[in-house]
Amino acid sequence: xxxxxxxxxxxxxxxxxxxxxxxxxxxxxxxxxxxxxxxxxxxxxxxxxxxxxxxxxxxxxxxxxxxxxxxxxxxxxxxxxxxxxxxxxxxxxxxxxxxxxxxxxxxxxxxxxxxxxxxxxxxxxxxxxxxxxxxxxxxxxxxxxxxxxxxxxxxxxxxxxxxxxxxxxxxxxxxxxxxxxxxxxxxxxxxxxxxxxxxxxxxxxxxxxxxxxxxxxxxxxxxxxxxxxxxxxxx
Length: 235
Description:
By secondary structure, the protein is α/β, with parallel strands linked by helices. The protein contains 7 helices and 10 strands.
């Protein structure tokens, strides 16, 4: 793993207005992430994992503090600039797959490239390469309804990776999978992390996912409780 920093979070606080008051979801978070990390935000429901992941992914903004992602201050980005950063540099993987049911596997993965104005030949080459990474080239004409849950999540990984992003954010990617598929999915992402040096950050409370992480950041009530590098060599 390289140490080149791609994310810097300083004194991040995030509040949400609820009724007549405020709820503080994150309080005084200070973290950095380097190029090629395979890290996880772990903790129980309500600990702030998804909120932090959304801010890193420029889907939300800090109430206080500074968050820099791939050289950009999240608070200073316009909606158009945020969308451009996500379209070219950030991939997302969700627990619910978010595949379009009327589209084929190929079309679902290709969708991530349509806003990049690539030629049809460039898109086809990139999509088939991404499907090869996740072992689904033979399913490129199938619809999501014809796939298993594990296969749908592999399509979601291919869609996130097809643009070769610098950063991939995965929110509970194994939540709807059995143990075997969970291991297969995370092993696939680990392989891509090593081969492409893409930074992966997970929000998870799944022990099966944690087994593969190189770094575990534990959140508790919106603050960083522990931040540990895993150096056992087992994963």
